[in-house]
Amino acid sequence: MRAPLGDFDVVHPAPEVLDLLAAPVARAVRGWSGPVPADELIHVDTDPAWADTATFLEHYGPELLDRSANCVVVAGKRGGETTLAACVVPSGARVDVNGVVRRQLGARKASFAPMDTATGETGMEYGGITPIGLPATWPLLVDAVVADLPHVLVGSGRRRGKLIVPGKAFASLPNAVVIEGLGTVA
Question: Which residue segments constitute the domains of the chain, with CATH numbers given?
């Protein structure tokens, strides 16, 4: 099988390699429903040493920058209450935490969640967090640019491996809201 983007040696439909995904991601793929068939979620094997965006692009090719996205966990606070949410933005963009995210969550203050919180609450590894398999109660904010891409490279829940997902699939995930301008070019 050949990946719809990039040049990867080991490529499989995600439902065939559930053991390579973080547990919550595997559960989400196993129970997948929506406008995109589960076998269109593709897993590619990648070296965990290159999981972070900059080193990943150095190794696998800078042309993937425009076809990849990062998923980050944010915390919105208001009146002593904290709301965790996830944001999916193009890899070359920064999440507008203090503007768009804060307003969308109705928070007085918003910031990136600490690494221990992000990994503990998602059940995923830092550097591999993906929107697929996040807690269903969390708001999922998706940049419109990502949702409009034919295929998007994102984490698999682990540092080893990535998923390639049709962009429109992100809009059908639990509590997903597609937002223009969620990510800003740095």
Answer: 11-185 (3.90.960.10)
Q: Tell me, yes or no, if the pTM score tops 0.85.
A: yes
User: Going by C-beta distance under 8 Å and a sequence separation of 6 or more, which residues neighbour residue 52?
Assistant: 127
Q: What is the DSSP string of 95-146?
A: E-IIIIIHHHHT-SEEEEPPHHHHHHHHT--TT---STT--TTS-EEEEHHH
- 44-83 pLDDT, tens digit each: 999 888 878 888 888 888 888 899 999 999 999 999 999 9
What is the spatial distance between Cα 183 and Cα 109, in angstroms, rounded to a whole number?
A: 18
- DSSP secondary structure letters along the chain: ---SSS--S-EEEGGG-GGGS-HHHHHHHHT--SSS-GGGSEEE---GGG-SHHHHHHHH-GGGGGGBEEEEEEEEEETTEEEEEEEEEETTEEE-IIIIIHHHHT-SEEEEPPHHHHHHHHT--TT---STT--TTS-EEEEHHHHHSS-EEEE-SSSS-EEEE-GGGGGGSTTEEEETTSEEE-
